[in-house]
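User: Show me sequence and structure for the first protein, then do the same for the second.

Assistant: Starting with the first protein.
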Amino acid sequence: MNTGSDEPREVAVAPDEQIDHAPDEAPAEQGLGSKAPEFIKSRRLLHLSWQVLVFVIGLAVVVAGIIMLPLPGPGWVVIFAGMAIWATEFVWAQLVLRWTKRKVTEAAQRALDPRVRRRNIILTSIGLVVIAAILGVYLWKFGFEMPWNIKDQ
């Protein structure tokens, strides 16, 4: 999986200190790794407990999002919120979110392409004409009668 880094070897740890950048330079992406407070990271048992807590909360949110996929609700938004919770502690979730953000940005750029928009408008118009024709034939043949109330004709 491409993580979006141009560097051949990316270090998966949070930087210890901030690096000063020249005014014309953009700061580098935030480092990978735990975003837990320093007092939690300094104690191994507390940090492990923190990670378990973050994992359980993130899992609950992701499961709620999965449940919302077939049901009414913002399923994908909740799933990505759970991934964001996981990304505060786990490098793998940070990499997945980085990859997802890049793919969504690419899809948005493609969707804004005038040729793609024109094609989508044409296909939508054709689909609406087909649906209107089917509805017109149904109304002409059966009137405003519901399909389950139609007797043999």
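Switching to the second protein now.
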Amino acid sequence: MAGRRTQAHRDAITVEIGYALLSGVFAAAVVFCAIAGIKLLFLAPYVVERGLFLAAWAAAVLVFVVRVVSVLWRFTAASGEADRVRQPNQPGLTNPDS
């Protein structure tokens, strides 16, 4: 299928990858700030603050990966459906299944 991709399809893939990465970074930043921000609100021992910081990083990485994979997976599924819907070979002819 790589040989049949049009420029529009390649552009759509590029835009979708960019969207997946940017939305993943945003979601990860929100999760990181939510977890790491707790240490700014409360006084806690160094070990607890360090644990919150590490938990924030781990959660942010997990959210980033899940977000990117889910966006790209959804795009791949939607693009696969579009590939299965075929148009007639000649203009003016209708598909017998329609």
